[in-house]
Structures are given as structure tokens and as C-alpha cells.
Amino acid sequence: MFDTVRKFARALRVPSAQDREMAYLNESRDRIDLEYRMRQVDRGMFRKTQF
Questions:
Q1: CA 5, CA 18: separation in Å to the nearest integer?
Q2: CA 47, CA 34: separation in Å to the nearest integer?
Q3: Which Pfam family, any one, appears in the UniProt record (predicted)?
Q4: How distant, in Å, are the alpha carbons of 2, 3, 39 from that of 34?
Q5: In the chain, what are the domain boundaries?
Q6: How far is it, in rounded angstroms, from Cα 34 to Cα 30?
Q7: What is the DSSP string of 1-51?
């Protein structure tokens, strides 16, 4: 019973900025693409507020 509730809660969880950053970095195709993406993350690509 509790496992079902836990799975449901995980399915509705909104990914954090760190989760989105890691997913973005994991999609890189090669070292150059990874370094480019790392620079974008360092510049705050995922940390900007939406106001």
C-alpha cells in the first residue's frame, strides 16, 4: 500500500533545477558538446527566475 503511494508521489514530483541540469548534461553527444553545456549551466541557464 505504502509503495503505491510512494510511486504516485514520485510520478507527480517536479524535477529540481539540479535534476534538470544533470539531464541536460547527460544528453551531450561528445566532450565538446559537454563542455559547451557545462558553460551554459555555469552561466545560470536553469537558475533564472521566471518573472
A1: 24
A2: 18
A3: DUF3563
A4: 39, 37, 9
A5: 14-51
A6: 6
A7: -HHHHHHHHHHHPPPPHHHHHHHHHHT--SHHHHHHHHHHHHTTTTT----
